Amino acid sequence: MTSVLRRVLEYATTVCGGFHGRYLVVFALSHLFPRFTAGTLIAKLYCWAGFTIAEGASFVGPVTVLSGTAFEENLVIGKRVLISNNVTINVDAMVSVGDDVSIGPFVKIYTASHPIGPGSHRMMWQIAAKPVTIERGVWIGLGATILPGVVLGYGSVVGAGSIVTSSVPPNTYVEGNPAAVVRSLPWGDR
Q1: CA dist., res. 105 & res. 45, Å (int)
Q2: DSSP state of 26
Q3: Are 76 and 99 spatial neighbours (Cβ–Cβ below 8 Å)?
Q4: Are 127 and 112 spatial neighbours (Cβ–Cβ below 8 Å)?
Q5: Which residues are catalytic?
Q6: 3-184, what's its fold?
Q7: Per-residue pLDDT tens over the stretch 167-190
């Protein structure tokens, strides 16, 4: 078998491994419910699909969950988490979302990338996955992208459209591409 054919077969196996029956049913069903009013019901459907989702979590609409291999065991969502519409979460490595987190519309959270190869083919087929941790009280704004290996410290805020390439300290506001600390934020519980 040629190396090209072997790589194509490895890639096809990875892509097909990302199809999970219960998730596909839940993803389709979640499109039928009214947004904003059925958030806790949609979250419970995702829990039925096998994801670990605590009580009080709410999904404004369907959440796209991507994975080449691992799936249900790599997504843990805490209490009172709000996930808005058109959010994409890649779970090739663990994604842990703490309590009281808000994730805005069109946010993308990725745990995987590919190693850089030789000049003849820069993107290698192998997946290089690193976990993403979102600690308690974080707010991720509209259209932000969180890259593999990032930890968003408790109480931090990610500005709209930001690309987060490295971990964010607790109680800070970051924005930009790449996201940088703009200012510190006070911490307080209600």
Answers
A1: 20
A2: H
A3: no
A4: yes
A5: 114
A6: UDP N-Acetylglucosamine Acyltransferase; domain 1 (2.160.10)
A7: 999 999 999 999 999 999 887 665
